[in-house]
Amino acid sequence: KGEVKPDIDQAEDAPKTDVDKEKVADAVLTEEDKAALADGKDISVKVKVANADETTEEAVKEKIAAVIKGSTIGKLFDITIEKTVDGVSTEVKETKNAIQFTVAIPESLVNTDATKERTYAIVRIHNGEAKEVTPITVENGTITFSTSEFSTYAIVYTDADKTPGTPSTPDTPSADNGNNAGSTTGDANTTPSSPSTGDMAMR
């Protein structure tokens, strides 16, 4: 039986992208590919992530910016999948199952203005049509999304004035801290520290 070899080709100037390589392989293999595997042929599946800031035409950028009013394009990148079966390579434009990607938000796009709240979105341009990719999860400096179409993607963001937080929120954690502190001091007292010093003195 042949072997499936999934791989990621990550360009240094593109956002750092993580993907479950095994799932990519599952999503791109056709029935013919599975038959080829059974015949002992190896299949390589390569996910390529490249910077598209320079290669994306202005007209395309305008389409992307128009998807979410008032948004700014932060970073453009291409996600392509190349499948090689028995030495023949083809580019996979679409897969039957969506594949989940987690993309690191580049440092240059991290909000440093405390008075603003920044909202991120992912926009995909596929077959000349720009669409927002939903749902996405933004956490720990990354954006996670699923897609079954491979082409050019953009991290876009919108800044809005921050609404002052309600004063009631900070109170709750401090009440809990009070209780926790009580229990920890209790534990600390029960630790027998003096006998160990005695042992030292004996030696």
Detailed description of the structure:
This protein has 203 residues and is of the alpha+beta class. The protein has helices at 21-28, 31-38, 58-67, 171-190, 194-202, and strands at residues 4-10, 17-19, 43-51, 72-85, 88-92, 94-104, 116-126, 129-133, 137-139, 142-149, 152-161. Strands 1, 3, 4, 5, 7, 8 and 11 form a seven-stranded mixed sheet that branches. The termini are far apart.
SSE layout:
Layout: E1 4-10, E2 17-19, H1 21-28, H2 31-38, E3 43-51, H3 58-67, E4 72-85, E5 88-92, E6 94-104, E7 116-126, E8 129-133, E9 137-139, E10 142-149, E11 152-161, H4 171-190, H5 194-202
Parallel strand pairs: 1-3
Antiparallel strand pairs: 2-6, 3-4, 4-5, 4-11, 6-10, 7-8, 7-11, 9-10
State the main characteristics.
203 residues, four-stranded antiparallel beta sheet, seven-stranded mixed beta sheet
What is this entry, summarized?
The protein has 203 residues and is an alpha+beta fold.
Round the Cα radius of gyration to an integer and report it.
Answer: 26 Å
Mean pLDDT: 85
Number of DSSP helical runs: 5
What is the 3D shape?
A: elongated
Low-confidence stretches: 166-198
